[in-house]
Amino acid sequence: MRAKIAVxxxxxTGLVAAYRLLQKDYQVEIxxxxxxxxxxxxxxxxxxxxxxxAYHHIFKTDKxxxxxxxxxxLLKKLKWYESKTALYYDKVMYPFGEAIxxxxxxxxNLIDKLRLGLVKIYLEKENNWQKFENVLAYEWMKNWxxxxxxxxxWEPLLRGKFGEKYKEISMAWxxxxxxxxxxxxxxxxxxxxxxxxxxxxxxDELERKILKLGGxxxxxxxxxxxxxxxxxxxxxxxxxxxxxxxxxxxxTVVFSSKQNLSPYYWHNVNDLDSPFLAVIxxxxxxxxxxxxxxxxxxxxxxxxxxxxxxxxxxxKIYQDFFDYLKKIFPEFKEKEIEExxxxxxxYAQHIVTTNYKKQIPRDKLNEKIxxxxxxxxxxxxxxxxxxxxxxxxxxxxx
Length: 398
Fold this sequence. Notes:
This protein has helices spanning about 10-25, 65-70, 100-105, 110-125, 135-145, 145-160, 170-180, 200-210, 225-230, 285, 315-330, 385-395, and strands spanning about 5-10, 25-30, 45, 50, 60, 80, 85-90, 90-95, 185, 190-195, 215-220, 235-240, 245-255, 265-270, 280, 295-305, 335-350, 370. By secondary structure, it is an alpha/beta fold.
Protein backbone atom coordinates (compact mmCIF):
# COMPACT_ATOMS: atom_id res chain seq x y z
CA MET A 1 0.00 0.00 0.00
CA ARG A 2 1.28 3.47 -0.90
CA ALA A 3 2.40 5.60 2.05
CA LYS A 4 0.09 8.50 2.93
CA ILE A 5 1.66 11.93 3.34
CA ALA A 6 0.00 15.07 4.71
CA VAL A 7 1.42 18.46 3.73
CA UNK A 8 0.53 21.39 5.98
CA UNK A 9 0.62 24.61 3.96
CA UNK A 10 -0.16 25.36 0.33
CA UNK A 11 2.60 27.84 -0.36
CA UNK A 12 5.18 27.04 -3.00
CA THR A 13 7.24 24.92 -0.57
CA GLY A 14 4.28 22.71 0.26
CA LEU A 15 3.17 22.48 -3.35
CA VAL A 16 6.64 21.49 -4.57
CA ALA A 17 6.99 18.88 -1.82
CA ALA A 18 3.59 17.41 -2.69
CA TYR A 19 4.34 17.39 -6.42
CA ARG A 20 7.66 15.57 -5.95
CA LEU A 21 6.06 12.97 -3.67
CA LEU A 22 3.23 12.33 -6.11
CA GLN A 23 5.80 11.81 -8.84
CA LYS A 24 7.17 9.00 -6.63
CA ASP A 25 3.67 7.49 -6.29
CA TYR A 26 2.91 8.52 -2.71
CA GLN A 27 -0.61 9.44 -1.60
CA VAL A 28 -0.59 13.14 -0.74
CA GLU A 29 -3.08 15.59 0.72
CA ILE A 30 -2.40 19.31 1.20
CA UNK A 31 -4.06 21.32 3.98
CA UNK A 32 -4.08 25.11 3.47
CA UNK A 33 -5.61 27.49 6.00
CA UNK A 34 -6.52 30.27 3.56
CA UNK A 35 -9.00 30.12 0.71
CA UNK A 36 -6.28 30.17 -1.97
CA UNK A 37 -2.87 28.64 -2.57
CA UNK A 38 0.45 30.45 -2.86
CA UNK A 39 1.32 31.71 0.61
CA UNK A 40 3.82 34.58 0.39
CA UNK A 41 3.75 34.09 -3.38
CA UNK A 42 -0.02 34.54 -3.47
CA UNK A 43 -1.58 36.88 -6.02
CA UNK A 44 -4.53 39.15 -6.64
CA UNK A 45 -5.85 40.93 -9.73
CA UNK A 46 -4.83 44.37 -11.05
CA UNK A 47 -6.41 45.40 -14.33
CA UNK A 48 -7.45 41.77 -14.72
CA UNK A 49 -3.85 40.53 -14.48
CA UNK A 50 -2.35 38.45 -11.66
CA UNK A 51 0.03 40.39 -9.44
CA UNK A 52 1.85 39.20 -6.32
CA UNK A 53 0.77 40.58 -2.95
CA ALA A 54 4.45 40.91 -2.08
CA TYR A 55 7.11 41.81 -4.64
CA HIS A 56 9.16 38.94 -6.05
CA HIS A 57 11.95 38.54 -8.56
CA ILE A 58 14.67 35.93 -9.04
CA PHE A 59 18.41 35.99 -9.67
CA LYS A 60 20.42 34.22 -12.35
CA THR A 61 21.96 32.10 -9.59
CA ASP A 62 18.51 30.70 -8.65
CA LYS A 63 18.93 27.31 -10.31
CA UNK A 64 16.11 25.41 -8.56
CA UNK A 65 13.29 27.79 -9.53
CA UNK A 66 14.64 28.14 -13.07
CA UNK A 67 14.69 24.33 -13.42
CA UNK A 68 11.12 24.10 -12.08
CA UNK A 69 9.92 26.80 -14.48
CA UNK A 70 11.41 24.79 -17.34
CA UNK A 71 9.85 21.55 -16.07
CA UNK A 72 6.43 23.21 -15.88
CA UNK A 73 6.69 24.42 -19.48
CA LEU A 74 6.89 28.08 -18.58
CA LEU A 75 10.49 28.86 -19.55
CA LYS A 76 9.49 31.02 -22.53
CA LYS A 77 7.74 33.36 -20.12
CA LEU A 78 10.81 33.87 -17.92
CA LYS A 79 12.34 37.19 -18.91
CA TRP A 80 15.51 38.86 -17.66
CA TYR A 81 15.70 42.59 -17.14
CA GLU A 82 18.37 45.03 -16.08
CA SER A 83 17.57 46.28 -12.60
CA LYS A 84 18.03 49.97 -11.77
CA THR A 85 18.47 50.80 -8.11
CA ALA A 86 18.38 54.07 -6.19
CA LEU A 87 18.97 55.10 -2.59
CA TYR A 88 17.00 57.83 -0.83
CA TYR A 89 19.03 59.60 1.85
CA ASP A 90 18.76 63.02 3.46
CA LYS A 91 15.90 64.11 1.16
CA VAL A 92 17.77 63.21 -2.04
CA MET A 93 17.31 60.22 -4.39
CA TYR A 94 20.67 58.93 -5.65
CA PRO A 95 21.26 56.30 -8.36
CA PHE A 96 22.93 53.40 -6.59
CA GLY A 97 23.33 50.44 -8.90
CA GLU A 98 26.71 50.67 -10.62
CA ALA A 99 30.28 51.48 -9.59
CA ILE A 100 30.05 54.92 -11.18
CA UNK A 101 27.00 55.65 -9.01
CA UNK A 102 29.00 54.93 -5.88
CA UNK A 103 31.78 57.27 -7.02
CA UNK A 104 29.19 60.04 -7.50
CA UNK A 105 27.44 59.42 -4.17
CA UNK A 106 27.82 62.76 -2.40
CA UNK A 107 27.05 61.77 1.22
CA UNK A 108 30.35 59.83 1.42
CA ASN A 109 33.93 60.95 0.91
CA LEU A 110 36.32 59.13 -1.43
CA ILE A 111 37.84 56.91 1.27
CA ASP A 112 34.37 55.83 2.45
CA LYS A 113 33.36 55.02 -1.12
CA LEU A 114 36.48 52.96 -1.73
CA ARG A 115 35.99 50.99 1.48
CA LEU A 116 32.33 50.38 0.66
CA GLY A 117 33.19 49.20 -2.84
CA LEU A 118 36.00 46.91 -1.69
CA VAL A 119 33.81 45.31 0.98
CA LYS A 120 31.12 44.62 -1.62
CA ILE A 121 33.66 42.98 -3.97
CA TYR A 122 35.12 40.93 -1.13
CA LEU A 123 31.75 39.60 0.03
CA GLU A 124 30.73 38.76 -3.55
CA LYS A 125 33.90 36.69 -4.03
CA GLU A 126 34.15 35.11 -0.57
CA ASN A 127 32.52 31.65 -0.50
CA ASN A 128 33.28 30.68 3.10
CA TRP A 129 30.16 32.07 4.79
CA GLN A 130 30.74 29.95 7.89
CA LYS A 131 33.39 32.39 9.09
CA PHE A 132 30.61 34.98 9.55
CA GLU A 133 28.14 32.83 11.52
CA ASN A 134 29.03 34.13 14.98
CA VAL A 135 29.92 37.66 13.89
CA LEU A 136 27.48 40.53 14.36
CA ALA A 137 26.62 42.21 11.06
CA TYR A 138 26.46 45.74 12.40
CA GLU A 139 29.89 45.48 14.06
CA TRP A 140 31.57 43.90 11.03
CA MET A 141 30.11 46.36 8.53
CA LYS A 142 30.91 49.36 10.71
CA ASN A 143 34.49 48.14 11.17
CA TRP A 144 35.24 47.37 7.53
CA UNK A 145 33.09 49.93 5.67
CA UNK A 146 33.78 52.70 8.15
CA UNK A 147 31.38 54.42 10.59
CA UNK A 148 30.06 56.96 8.05
CA UNK A 149 29.34 54.44 5.27
CA UNK A 150 27.74 52.12 7.81
CA UNK A 151 25.54 54.93 9.15
CA UNK A 152 24.41 56.08 5.70
CA UNK A 153 24.04 52.75 3.84
CA TRP A 154 23.91 49.70 6.10
CA GLU A 155 22.38 50.74 9.41
CA PRO A 156 19.12 51.92 7.77
CA LEU A 157 18.89 48.58 5.96
CA LEU A 158 19.45 46.53 9.11
CA ARG A 159 17.10 48.65 11.22
CA GLY A 160 14.47 48.84 8.50
CA LYS A 161 14.59 45.08 8.04
CA PHE A 162 14.90 43.88 11.64
CA GLY A 163 13.82 46.82 13.81
CA GLU A 164 15.02 46.67 17.41
CA LYS A 165 16.72 43.32 16.72
CA TYR A 166 19.17 44.79 14.19
CA LYS A 167 22.19 44.52 16.51
CA GLU A 168 21.59 40.78 16.90
CA ILE A 169 21.76 39.89 13.19
CA SER A 170 24.47 37.53 12.00
CA MET A 171 26.98 38.65 9.40
CA ALA A 172 26.20 35.37 7.62
CA TRP A 173 22.82 36.87 6.66
CA UNK A 174 24.49 40.02 5.32
CA UNK A 175 27.05 37.94 3.42
CA UNK A 176 24.30 35.96 1.70
CA UNK A 177 22.40 39.09 0.70
CA UNK A 178 25.42 40.70 -0.96
CA UNK A 179 26.93 37.49 -2.33
CA UNK A 180 23.72 36.35 -4.05
CA UNK A 181 22.97 39.70 -5.66
CA UNK A 182 26.56 40.21 -6.76
CA UNK A 183 26.63 36.90 -8.57
CA UNK A 184 23.50 37.78 -10.53
CA UNK A 185 25.36 40.62 -12.22
CA UNK A 186 26.83 40.76 -15.71
CA UNK A 187 29.40 43.38 -16.68
CA UNK A 188 28.63 45.29 -13.50
CA UNK A 189 24.87 45.36 -14.12
CA UNK A 190 22.30 43.41 -12.14
CA UNK A 191 19.74 41.33 -14.03
CA UNK A 192 16.57 40.07 -12.40
CA UNK A 193 14.04 37.54 -13.62
CA UNK A 194 10.26 37.82 -13.69
CA UNK A 195 7.66 35.50 -15.15
CA UNK A 196 5.65 37.35 -17.78
CA UNK A 197 2.06 37.21 -16.56
CA UNK A 198 3.06 36.74 -12.91
CA UNK A 199 4.29 34.00 -10.59
CA UNK A 200 0.72 32.78 -10.07
CA UNK A 201 1.25 30.66 -13.17
CA UNK A 202 3.65 28.45 -11.20
CA UNK A 203 1.10 28.01 -8.41
CA ASP A 204 -1.65 27.21 -10.93
CA GLU A 205 0.47 24.74 -12.85
CA LEU A 206 1.63 22.94 -9.70
CA GLU A 207 -1.98 22.72 -8.53
CA ARG A 208 -3.04 21.29 -11.88
CA LYS A 209 -0.28 18.66 -11.88
CA ILE A 210 -0.91 17.71 -8.25
CA LEU A 211 -4.61 17.08 -8.93
CA LYS A 212 -3.82 15.22 -12.14
CA LEU A 213 -1.47 12.90 -10.24
CA GLY A 214 -4.21 12.11 -7.75
CA GLY A 215 -3.24 14.49 -4.98
CA UNK A 216 -5.85 16.16 -2.80
CA UNK A 217 -5.96 19.84 -1.82
CA UNK A 218 -8.11 21.13 1.01
CA UNK A 219 -8.24 24.91 1.51
CA UNK A 220 -9.77 26.83 4.43
CA UNK A 221 -8.49 24.17 6.81
CA UNK A 222 -5.99 25.40 9.38
CA UNK A 223 -4.17 22.59 11.17
CA UNK A 224 -3.46 23.76 14.71
CA UNK A 225 -2.89 20.33 16.19
CA UNK A 226 -1.14 17.51 14.30
CA UNK A 227 -2.14 14.62 16.56
CA UNK A 228 -5.09 13.57 14.41
CA UNK A 229 -2.98 13.73 11.24
CA UNK A 230 -0.23 11.67 12.87
CA UNK A 231 -2.70 8.87 13.45
CA UNK A 232 -3.97 8.91 9.87
CA UNK A 233 -0.83 9.64 7.82
CA UNK A 234 2.53 7.92 7.63
CA UNK A 235 4.45 11.21 7.45
CA UNK A 236 3.67 14.92 7.74
CA UNK A 237 5.50 17.75 6.03
CA UNK A 238 4.80 20.97 7.89
CA UNK A 239 5.57 24.35 6.34
CA UNK A 240 4.10 26.15 9.38
CA UNK A 241 6.24 28.68 11.31
CA UNK A 242 8.85 27.16 13.61
CA UNK A 243 8.38 27.54 17.35
CA UNK A 244 12.13 27.83 17.90
CA UNK A 245 12.52 30.89 15.63
CA UNK A 246 11.48 34.52 16.03
CA UNK A 247 9.71 36.14 13.09
CA UNK A 248 8.85 39.60 11.88
CA UNK A 249 5.69 40.47 10.02
CA UNK A 250 5.47 42.51 6.84
CA UNK A 251 3.11 44.83 5.05
CA THR A 252 2.84 45.98 1.48
CA VAL A 253 0.82 48.84 0.10
CA VAL A 254 0.28 48.22 -3.61
CA PHE A 255 -1.21 50.75 -5.99
CA SER A 256 -1.55 51.49 -9.67
CA SER A 257 -1.25 54.91 -11.26
CA LYS A 258 -0.60 56.50 -14.62
CA GLN A 259 2.04 58.62 -12.89
CA ASN A 260 5.62 57.59 -13.56
CA LEU A 261 7.47 58.72 -10.45
CA SER A 262 10.96 57.41 -11.15
CA PRO A 263 13.29 55.82 -13.72
CA TYR A 264 14.36 53.20 -11.12
CA TYR A 265 12.94 49.81 -10.20
CA TRP A 266 14.14 49.53 -6.60
CA HIS A 267 14.43 52.44 -4.18
CA ASN A 268 16.02 51.83 -0.79
CA VAL A 269 14.60 54.38 1.66
CA ASN A 270 17.46 55.06 4.09
CA ASP A 271 15.47 57.22 6.47
CA LEU A 272 14.49 55.81 9.83
CA ASP A 273 11.45 58.10 9.96
CA SER A 274 9.94 56.41 6.92
CA PRO A 275 7.07 53.97 7.58
CA PHE A 276 8.39 51.76 4.76
CA LEU A 277 11.80 50.37 3.85
CA ALA A 278 11.57 50.36 0.08
CA VAL A 279 9.65 51.72 -2.90
CA ILE A 280 9.43 49.25 -5.77
CA UNK A 281 8.20 50.54 -9.10
CA UNK A 282 7.34 47.09 -10.36
CA UNK A 283 6.67 48.16 -13.94
CA UNK A 284 10.11 49.73 -14.25
CA UNK A 285 11.49 46.20 -14.38
CA UNK A 286 9.30 44.54 -17.01
CA UNK A 287 7.20 47.34 -18.45
CA UNK A 288 3.52 48.14 -18.04
CA UNK A 289 1.97 46.68 -21.19
CA UNK A 290 0.29 43.88 -19.17
CA UNK A 291 -1.26 46.42 -16.82
CA UNK A 292 -3.07 48.59 -19.33
CA UNK A 293 -0.28 51.14 -19.42
CA UNK A 294 -0.49 51.75 -15.67
CA UNK A 295 2.50 51.84 -13.37
CA UNK A 296 2.49 49.44 -10.42
CA UNK A 297 4.09 50.40 -7.10
CA UNK A 298 4.86 48.54 -3.88
CA UNK A 299 5.66 50.22 -0.58
CA UNK A 300 7.16 47.53 1.63
CA UNK A 301 7.74 47.41 5.39
CA UNK A 302 8.94 44.81 7.88
CA UNK A 303 7.24 45.14 11.26
CA UNK A 304 7.17 43.50 14.69
CA UNK A 305 4.17 41.21 14.92
CA UNK A 306 2.62 43.45 17.61
CA UNK A 307 2.95 46.64 15.51
CA UNK A 308 -0.17 48.78 15.46
CA UNK A 309 -0.29 48.67 11.64
CA UNK A 310 -1.59 45.11 11.90
CA UNK A 311 -4.66 46.47 13.69
CA UNK A 312 -4.98 49.91 12.08
CA UNK A 313 -7.48 50.54 9.33
CA UNK A 314 -6.39 50.54 5.71
CA UNK A 315 -7.30 54.24 5.62
CA LYS A 316 -4.77 55.03 8.37
CA ILE A 317 -2.05 53.05 6.61
CA TYR A 318 -2.70 54.75 3.26
CA GLN A 319 -2.47 58.12 4.97
CA ASP A 320 0.87 57.37 6.66
CA PHE A 321 2.45 55.73 3.64
CA PHE A 322 1.25 58.20 1.02
CA ASP A 323 2.11 61.23 3.17
CA TYR A 324 5.68 60.02 3.37
CA LEU A 325 5.79 59.08 -0.31
CA LYS A 326 5.08 62.74 -1.08
CA LYS A 327 8.26 63.66 0.78
CA ILE A 328 10.27 61.40 -1.49
CA PHE A 329 8.41 62.31 -4.67
CA PRO A 330 6.79 65.78 -4.26
CA GLU A 331 5.09 65.33 -7.63
CA PHE A 332 3.18 62.27 -6.37
CA LYS A 333 -0.57 62.83 -6.59
CA GLU A 334 -2.76 60.54 -4.56
CA LYS A 335 -5.77 61.41 -6.70
CA GLU A 336 -4.01 59.77 -9.68
CA ILE A 337 -4.18 56.36 -7.95
CA GLU A 338 -6.60 54.01 -9.69
CA GLU A 339 -6.44 50.91 -7.49
CA UNK A 340 -4.87 50.47 -4.07
CA UNK A 341 -4.49 47.56 -1.67
CA UNK A 342 -2.99 46.71 1.74
CA UNK A 343 -1.61 43.25 2.45
CA UNK A 344 -0.43 42.05 5.85
CA UNK A 345 1.79 39.04 6.53
CA UNK A 346 2.26 37.91 10.12
CA TYR A 347 5.22 35.61 9.37
CA ALA A 348 7.39 37.18 6.69
CA GLN A 349 11.01 37.28 7.85
CA HIS A 350 12.95 35.10 10.25
CA ILE A 351 15.39 36.90 12.54
CA VAL A 352 18.82 35.50 11.72
CA THR A 353 20.86 35.95 14.88
CA THR A 354 24.35 34.62 15.55
CA ASN A 355 24.39 30.87 16.16
CA TYR A 356 21.17 30.75 14.14
CA LYS A 357 21.79 27.21 12.93
CA LYS A 358 21.09 25.92 16.45
CA GLN A 359 17.53 27.30 16.27
CA ILE A 360 16.65 25.23 13.19
CA PRO A 361 15.08 21.87 14.13
CA ARG A 362 16.81 18.79 12.80
CA ASP A 363 14.37 16.23 11.47
CA LYS A 364 15.01 12.64 12.51
CA LEU A 365 14.18 9.71 10.29
CA ASN A 366 11.95 8.10 12.94
CA GLU A 367 9.88 11.25 13.49
CA LYS A 368 6.54 11.68 11.81
CA ILE A 369 6.87 15.42 11.16
CA UNK A 370 9.34 16.95 8.71
CA UNK A 371 9.68 20.72 8.90
CA UNK A 372 10.02 22.76 5.71
CA UNK A 373 9.63 26.42 6.63
CA UNK A 374 11.46 29.33 4.98
CA UNK A 375 13.16 30.00 8.32
CA UNK A 376 15.27 26.91 7.62
CA UNK A 377 16.80 28.67 4.61
CA UNK A 378 20.25 29.55 5.87
CA UNK A 379 22.49 31.45 5.36
CA UNK A 380 20.59 32.69 2.29
CA UNK A 381 17.59 34.93 2.84
CA UNK A 382 14.18 33.48 2.03
CA UNK A 383 13.00 33.72 -1.57
CA UNK A 384 11.22 31.76 -4.29
CA UNK A 385 14.29 29.74 -5.23
CA UNK A 386 14.99 28.57 -1.69
CA UNK A 387 11.30 27.84 -1.08
CA UNK A 388 11.46 25.42 -4.02
CA UNK A 389 14.68 23.96 -2.66
CA UNK A 390 13.12 23.43 0.78
CA UNK A 391 10.11 21.66 -0.75
CA UNK A 392 12.37 19.30 -2.68
CA UNK A 393 14.54 18.67 0.38
CA UNK A 394 11.49 17.75 2.46
CA UNK A 395 10.20 15.36 -0.20
CA UNK A 396 13.58 13.64 -0.40
CA UNK A 397 13.45 12.95 3.36
CA UNK A 398 10.28 10.83 3.04
